[in-house]
From TrEMBL, chains A, B:
Domain (MoaB/Mog): residue spans on this chain: 4-170
Pfam assignment, any one: CinA
Matching InterPro entries: CinA, CinA-like_C, CinA_C, CinA_KH, Competence-induced_CinA, MoaB/Mog-like_dom_sf, MoaB/Mog_dom
UniProt record similarity statement: Belongs to the CinA family.
Name the UniProt record assigns to this protein: CinA-like protein
């Protein structure tokens, strides 16, 4: 069963908006056995949208469409779909009631333009949008079903969860699409490929292996598709165990979870807590950790010491250290980490200080220079790193490397 | 001049990776007058990639391709392009030297698989990749040029900047594509649309207006395309000034910059500084602010007080307040803000505390309940907010609303 996702909106084509919807939709569709074959983004142009509808129905049976359903003049999807499926616009009483109730609740005056949201083509089935005013719509033509949803992410997610996914499960007999993913660090993808090449060549033809390098780490993903879930699971588990052994020395975690969650799970299993003292990473490490549900179990908090005075006043870094060694130095990150572990009850800590760019670089500390310290009250290690990218990427790499350092530090403690 | 972007990789179709490349490419292409007409994502499938190459050349003259150039078996783009353009693989000495130098610098053994990176179809022009081992490649066929680049974002960006954009500027006479964007808060898009409907209907047909709602704010974007830059600029400036007046009461900033940058600029213009005390937002506000270059000029730092003891020990929140009022209360955020402004020399501060979910909700403080305080040593205001989304979205909304509150607080001070 193939799906295609059409996203509509000039903002996607001029780069004003990053499309996060498609990734989420693809994940959810995968879980119920639907493979997304293509994703297409087109602008707010009648001709281009029409063409995309024609084309995508050639390669997929399920066409998911997002965007262009708002109440303003640049939103042209609904009248276009009405024409495409040869319908005429009618008021849907259920939607009208829903829209009216929303405006009543918000205590905002409802205007003609909002009432228009309740008009839908008479050839569609309405998919209720509990989280907003623009309803989802389902059309059928030939062997295909077409589902149109708003582009606002949480509204799209609501309609997908409440309506679309249950409907697809009811309507089609799907195969199972199963993945197994593991995360490695400290080695390049070609080196891994070399190490596992004999094994990779021996993989059954219906099992796909993918290499996903990012932030100096490599994720390996096995994918299997088939009708018999038990058999697929067994086959994947077996191959995954083999892979596990082959890459053992670089393995971080044998699950498809981010590094910060792997670190969180490790802390939970050891009943330990952590905190961070961030200068150059500016709170990004704290954000990564606290974005994980349940992180309050093991995360105490953070001091973002961006200014010298915060480094001194809150973390107790010596003024003389900053004067003589500079903020970006082994001494400063070590004192930051010390101060953090004195100020908080956390068992482990991370401290960062660096020059993220574009300004602030010097000859001996060029843009991209970072010092990271990790450790406990008993033992600390510090490392100088150097990244060559833009500010945001340098921040992300600092965070990932710091998380990795602490992860390996804690893992290493067990081995002793 | 139309472009189409083809992104290749199963990770895009199963939702494992969010495509940020396309947005960046589109922005850069727009700046030199190239309009991206479509974006297509396809999997690691020879047939699907081939079909995409055929199709996209129907609607665009510039086809940009990313992904599938790595050294592992799932990377099939290069041999496919070689066949598509009827070439044969040859070693490129310049690339070979470059790849060898990279491995020498990293002090890693170079293997056969890495040397393969230096093989390219003899019918392509090599576009050097200074940031990695996989070279960019340019092909010509009919009226189209095809440019293939690695999917790793910073490598793609390097090739685009060093090679592709200069080449396109040399090769084509482009029109100008100009945008003007402003940001409003406090009102829905349909209300704005109503207010400006007469003006919008009177817009020249070659000027497009777009409504971009997000996080409870609405961005309005005017776009003009044409050959005479001066004339376009004049026309846009005139219309933008009219729009400015029409939405004056909700206007936050008349530039296409994020809210945190508007706040930064406001602080810079007043020569003031700020800091944050974050519980539920977990450092995300600090991250947004510090991701802006030059933020160290006005940003002092942050205490992420996730645990009770950090709220007490670092920010000086009274134990009795936490006991009697709870962490999510007006009293707690106000004490957090007070503590922050005592501990640091910042002029302004933000404090947040809330229940981000999925766990932790109670009857009187359900998931999504947030208290935000903003202000100075002289004056503070606090507000209770409620969001109904998932954890990450609740964190983002907390951050955006808190930034907006502080922005309006500081703006309001001037008015008095």
């Amino acid at each position: 069963m193939y799906a295609s996702i059409i996203t509509i909106g000039d903002e996607l084509l001029i780069g004003q908006t990053i499309d996060t919807n498609s990734a989420w939709m693809a994940q959810e569709l995968n879980k119920i056995g639907v493979w997304v074959k293509r994703r297409v983004a087109v602008g707010d142009s009648r001709k281009d949208i029409w063409q995309a509808l024609d084309e995508e129905s050639q390669s997929a049976q399920i066409i998911l469409i997002t965007g262009g359903l708002g109440p303003t003049a640049d939103d042209i999807t609904k009248p276009l779909l009405c024409d495409y499926f040869a319908g005429k616009m009618v008021v849907n009483e259920m939607v009208l009631e829903h829209v009216t109730a929303i405006f009543r609740r918000l205590n905002r005056p409802i205007i003609e333009r909002n009432m228009k949201q309740a008009e839908v083509p008479d050839v569609c089935t309405v998919l209720m949008n509990k989280r907003g005013t623009a309803p989802g719509m389902l059309f059928r033509k030939g062997n295909c079903i077409y589902i149109s949803m708003p582009g606002v992410p949480h509204e799209m997610k609501g309609i997908m969860t409440d309506e679309v996914l249950p409907l697809l499960k009811r309507e089609y007999k799907m195969p199972f699409i199963l993945h197994r993913t593991l995360l490695t660090a400290g080695v390049g993808e070609s080196f891994i490929a070399e190490k596992i090449s004999a094994w990779e060549e021996g993989l059954p033809s219906d099992i796909k292996l993918a290499y996903l390098p990012n932030y100096g780490m490599v994720r390996l993903r096995l994918t299997a598709t088939g009708a018999n879930k038990e058999q697929l699971d067994e086959q994947l588990d077996h191959l995954f165990a083999e892979l596990h052994v082959l890459v053992k020395e670089w393995l971080i975690v044998a699950e498809d979870i981010p590094l910060e969650q792997a670190l969180g799970n490790l802390l939970l299993s050891r009943k330990k807590t952590m905190a961070t003292a961030e200068s150059c990473s500016g709170g990004y490490i704290a954000h990564l950790i606290t974005a994980i549900p349940g992180s309050s179990e093991y995360f105490k908090g953070t001091v973002v010491a961006y200014a010298y005075d915060v480094k001194e006043d809150v973390l107790g870094v010596q003024h003389s250290t900053l004067e003589t060694k500079g903020a970006v130095s082994e001494e400063t990150v070590t004192e930051m980490l010390n101060g953090l572990l004195q100020k908080t009850t956390a068992d482990y800590g991370i401290a960062t200080s660096g020059v993220m760019g574009p300004g602030g670089g010097t000859d001996d500390k060029p843009v991209g220079t970072v010092w990271v310290a990790v450790g406990s009250r008993e033992k600390m290690i510090a490392k100088r790193l150097h990244f060559r990218f833009d500010r945001l990427k340098n921040i992300e790499l600092t965070a990932t490397n710091a998380l990795l350092m602490l992860f390996q530090f804690i893992e290493g403690e067990q081995d002793k």
